[in-house]
Each structure stands twice: as structure tokens, then as C-alpha cells.
Amino acid sequence: MKFFPIFADLQHKKVLVVGAGKVATRKIEMLQKAGADIHVVAAKACATVQGWAQQQQLTLHLKNFSADDVTQCWLVVAATDDSAVNQQVQAAAVAQCIWCNSVDDPQHSEFIMPAVVDRGDIQVAISSGGNAPVLARRLRAQIDNLLPQAIADVAQLMGRWRDKVKQSLPTFDSRRNFWERLLDSEITQQLAGGQQQQAEQLAQQLLDDCSANRETLKLGHVSLVGAGPGDAELLTLKAQLRLQQADVIFYDALVDKSILERARRDADFIYVGKTKGFHSVPQEEIQARLVASALAGNRVVRLKGGDPFVFGRGGEELQALDEAGISFDVVPGITAAAAAAAYTGVALTHRDYAQSTVFVTGHGQEGGDLDWASLAKSQQTLAIYMGLHQSADIQRQLIQHGRAPNTPVAIIENASRPQQRSVGGELKDLAQLIQRHEVKSPAIILVGEVCEQLGDYHWFGAKPLY
Ligand code: SAH
């Protein structure tokens, strides 16, 4: 280990930065966050540093560096663009046993600055020993994605409760048990949702239970999570986080394997989708199982293709959870129509062609009687979900109610997945196109003038068929 990791308290301590250009600015910003008393020595300074000096956020000495500038400093940063000067700075610092960092020059540095994931009191610092800063920054971004923002609030709450917990729970083991149980609870989600008061109440209840040596009735939590249209990289950061936290995951047929691979390895995966030739698990049963799993104290994810509230029956599940008094949250996902449009270059509301987009289900049972007269209006885009089987009916009704037979249509199968296919044509041929090209589920049918663009801005998967 060449560099020993420590976290240093620099509050109000004198730190010298030599140089006042772009590189120095980045270092100064970090030091400002740490509350250091920053002195900058430079013959000339960039506008940013001058501004900070005017606002008295640092002391600027417009002069050449001299060895005694380092005196009484806790840290020195050599950040000029002249390596000879940087080496002079380092030599002066080392002579007085002061830690010196020469920017981008680990050979001439007694300390280096890590890439940092910053969540208030929680700091994750990553070092590559100065050898691979780009790699360190990439790791930083990956860790950044994984850590909920609310971790900072959790740490703060734990800090506030420390003394109280110490008073209530005399032994180290009992305190550790309390903290573990607190972290296992839904406190992070509550703080992320701004429910400060509930979080404090939860902490109090847990502390009471621990003091009385009672088991806390562990109430679980259900997250309705949109998995997006298939491409795992279209998951939101929050969806990924929920998958990482889950004890149990109930998922549908439309959820890709590559998405499940991003979930916590030892979670229970429960399939509740439709299998060919078999009926899917009835909706009431899914709801009952979600409730039961949460009541058993699990952190449950209900993972659905696309967005949970777009033809996903998420509304009914939410109602069931609410009635059972289970805490829940909803993570939106990229709905199939948005993905189908993006991945074929068809702008759903291109201002030259359409003023609105209607999400509609072609599945008779789901949609009941559709308002064909309003759907047949021009200058609007229809995004029809589950429409393959009813395509002949859709085509006939739209034309009967006045939509032009030559209105462009696009059918997109497996949008955003490597096997994506798209078919273009006119409304009067919709059913025939689907048959001829053997379009299979899942597919979205787009109807409207915007479909004229299909093929013009092709960038993903196979070229459109006609
Ligand atoms: N909640 C989902 C929709 C569920 S209904 C969402 O927001 O996307 C199921 C229908 O969605 C399918 O029949 C199909 O019409 C559409 N669909 C889902 N994923 C799709 C995909 N990758 N490509 C095309 N259509 C898709």
C-alpha cells in the first residue's frame, strides 16, 4: 500500500494552493467543501479564483512562490502548469514535514486526492494510487449510482440518535442490534420520500422495543417497479436500487433475464406471468401474495414490463397494498410506446404532424368499448398496446370513423431489444402487414402521420420492413 487512506479534518486549518488556473480551481473546490482556510499563491489568477478572493472565500497572494509560503500550513497543493515550480513547492513542504500534493504527479506527492462519492457524512473515497485516475472516476460513478441519496439523511439521523440510544441500551450488543434493525427497516425509503416524522417515529418504536427486549413486528414494504421495455440499461437508477435491496421479486413475462441479473443474487424470484398455453396467475392472487410477502417482513419488488401504471394493473395492486396497510412506493419505467418511438426514430409528437399521443389498448377485454370517433381524428398519434390480435378490427373501425386509409402506421416488435423488428405501411394494410411479416408479441402499433418518419432516422436493429 503506497498511500495510506485517512480522512482529515481541515476545518479552519491553513492550506496552501500554489497556482490559480483551472486545475487549481478543482482542488480549491474540494478544499472549500472541507472548510479549510485556503491561501492561494500565484503570479496571476483565473476569474473564478479572483471571484472567490473577492467574496473572501480564500486569501489570494498575487506573487511568485517562495519557500516560506508553506510555513504553518497543514497541507500544500502544487497546482501550477510548471513542473519545476511544483517540485520547488514540494521540496519546501517536505523540508518542513508538510504533506504536499503535486497535481497529476504522484511521484512528487506525499498525499493524493481520491475520487469521492459524497453523501454528507458518508464519504466513499477511491484511489488508484495515482496510476489510473480515469478508472477511479469510473468506479466512482458506478458506486455513486448504487448509493441512495438518502444515505446522507440516514447517517444524520443515526448521528442524532446516538446519545439517546446509548442511554437507553447499556450494552454494545444491544446497541448494535438496534442499529442493524433500524437499517433493515424502511427508514431509507421514508427519508428518501421526505417522511422525516415517520422515520423518527419508527426509530422511537424500535428503540422502545429493543429496550423492552421485544421483537418488533416487522412490516415489509412493496415497491412497484417499472422494468422498462427490455434493454437492461433502460432501467432507472432507482429501479436498480430497489432490485438490489429486494428480498422477494415478483416478475412478469415481459421482464428480460438481463434485468433480473441485476437484482440481489439471493433474492427469491417468483414468476407470475403468462406462459404459453397456460393462464397467468390471477390478478387477485398476485395481490394477495404481495400482501402476504410484505406482512412476513420482506422487502418486495413487484417488477413489471415498461411502466407499472401503463396497462400494468399497478393501480389495482396499489389499492390492495393500501387496504392492507402495507407501505409502498412506485418507480416509473420507460413505457413500450416511448421506447418503440425512440428506437425507430419516430418522434411521437413531432410538431409538424401531431399535437397529441394517445396510449390505447387494443385488447378488447382491457379497453372495453373504445371511443373510435375520437381515436380516428387526424393530427394525433395512437400508440396501441396489445393490438396484434385485434388489428383487423382496429384498422376497420379507424377507417370507418374517418381516419384516412393511407395514414402511415408502424409496428414495432421487441422494441429496444437486440431482436427488434419494425414494419411500416398504411392503415388500410395494417392487419395484412402484421400477418405477412409474422409480427409477434410484444409489439406496439403506432398510427399517425408521424410514422412517415419510420426509416428516415434509422439507428437501431434491423432496417424497417414494408
Ligand atoms: N406496462 C407496459 C405495458 C404492458 S401491456 C408498458 O408500459 O410498456 C403489454 C404490451 O406492451 C404488449 O402486448 C406490447 O403491446 C407492449 N410492449 C411491452 N414491451 C414491448 C416491447 N419491448 N416492444 C414492443 N411492445 C412492447
Domains (count): 4
Q: Strand order within the widest sheet?
A: 3-2-1-4-5
The CATH homologous superfamily name of the largest domain equals Tetrapyrrole methylase, C-terminal domain
Characterize the main sheet: 5 strands, parallel
Number of strands: 17
Distance between the termini: 63 Å
Which of globular, elongated, flat, extended, rod-shaped describes the shape?
flat
- State the name of the first-level CATH class of the largest domain: Alpha Beta
SS class: alpha/beta
State the low-pLDDT regions, or none.
none
Q: Could you walk me through the main structural features you see in this protein, from its secondary elements to its overall organization?
A:
With 466 residues, the protein is of the alpha/beta class. The chain folds into four domains: 14-113, Rossmann fold, CATH 3.40.50; 151-209, Helicase, Ruva Protein, domain 3 (Orthogonal Bundle), CATH 1.10.8; 221-334, Tetrapyrrole methylase, N-terminal domain (Cobalt-precorrin-4 Transmethylase, domain 1, 3-Layer(aba) Sandwich), CATH 3.40.1010; 338-453, Tetrapyrrole methylase, C-terminal domain (Methyltransferase, Cobalt-precorrin-4 Transmethylase, Domain 2, 2-Layer Sandwich), CATH 3.30.950.10. It has 17 helices and 17 strands. The strands form four sheets. Strands 3-2-1-4-5 form a five-stranded parallel β-sheet, with helices on both faces. A five-stranded parallel β-sheet has the order 10-9-11-8-12, with helices on both faces. The protein has a five-stranded mixed β-sheet with strand order 13-14-17-15-16, sandwiched between helices. α6 (172-184) runs antiparallel to α8 (196-211). The N and C termini lie far apart (63 Å). The model has no long low-confidence stretch (mean pLDDT 93). The structure holds S-adenosyl-L-homocysteine. S-adenosyl-L-homocysteine binds at residues 229-230, 254, 304-307, 310-312, 335-336, 340, 385-386, 412, 414-417, 441-444.
